[in-house]
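Inputs:
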Amino acid sequence: MTKLTNHPSTADMQASDARHHLHPFTDNPVINARGARVITRAEGVYVYDSEGNRMLDGMAGLWCCNIGYGRTELAEVAYRQMQELPFYNTFFMTSHPPVIALAEKLAELMPGDLNRVFFSSGGSDANDTNIRLVRHYWASQGKPEKSIIISRWNGYHGSTMGGGSLGGMKGIHAQGGLPIPDIVHIDQPYWYAEGGDMTPEEFGLARARLLEETIDRVGEDRVAAFIAEPVQGAGGVIIPPDTYWPEIQRICDERNILLIADEVITAFGRTGNWFGSDTYNIRPDIMTIAKGLSSGYQPIGGSVVSEKVCEVLDAGGEFAHGYTYSGHPVAAAVALENLRIMQEEKIVDTVRDDTQHYMAKKWATLADHPLVGEARIKGMMGAIELTPDASARAPFAADAGTVGYICREHCFANGLVMRHVYDRMIISPPLVISHGEIDELVEKAWMCLDLTLKDVKAQGLMVAGQR
Ligand code: PXG
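Outputs:
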């Protein structure tokens, strides 16, 4: 069999990529001028590019490859499923064995009575489902005016019209007529940058109470739901103070609104338990899932819905919504196999009892680096804040992201995939990462911080600016 890795030269692929491929969230002229890095294969926690460079993948692809690369069991399941039933839909009174088995498995793993799943191909379209679903939930109870969804600035919920509207990324809102009507954003629980003189505990409460104040301001009879990530991922691994989620839960319990936990990143072990909702004691009415559901081996996501919500939906007749690939049989079979491996190999238990503690200890050492203002981590998602003045938690005077980009480039050049969100460096490695690989990750991170500091000093960028 010809190996897929027998590819054209890097230069030829880069030229073709520049000519024909529009990349997501990428400045196309910039990537075209320098040429994309072409990733050709992966094994365990490492990815390899077309030049043969090996990199420790500190991002698990894009927060998704939880069981690591190269699991042939998943490939075999996909192969068998494609031969038996490569596609059938789940519309119009039909179903098939893989989707039935996967929905049942998810109901078993989920907290509370999140027992039924509406499938999608990813997180954005699952959140679009959520918008329509919660509005339909209230409308079918005679309350169509309960349509506002409250979310947070710097939250990320995808980039479709709905997902991008729920998210609080100003760059996304600026393009294409977003946000859609009846989405209201409140401030995030980002203590490092926005907490000022408050303690993290005081700040967590203050930011949670913005939800209560906003419900009061717009009127409870107008609010359908609150949506949030247990830990913000794409926003820069914003770990809320411990006071935040209990207060949010209290407010949602006291008010007649639904709570949607967007666990596209935090589900399936990322925060040290099966779900971020377990870690923070959140009782969502709906949970968004994707990414780790199949460890990224197949595109699949979903909205997992509580019995309370399902009862109303059932009484409301047909929900006029669905995607051709809702519950795709190959994706469902692969997701099921991924969950089987995670359970049988006790991957989440190992993170909870062992790896996350080792990682936390090692990650914390980065706080001693002169360029680092804070090193924070929850389970297996972490961030370091780059700063010219740690004691003041100061940002750089240079444009946000200038220093983070320098650091990211050093990481890539030195065999470590660590992303930057402005001047925060973030990691979310495969959950199967070993102690030795964690040592390598942290050693490389330190070395790249040294290289960055040298550049930043040479370029006169070690200057504090204003928030
Ligand atoms: N919700 C959350 C919490 C996410 O992290 C989505 C929804 C959307 O999922 P899809 O499958 O439609 O992409 C996500 C996706 C980044 C980055 O820059 C993060 C995501 C996607 C792309 C880039 O960290 N998260």
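Remarks. The chain has two domains: 37-67+346-458, 73-344. The chain has a mean pLDDT of 97.
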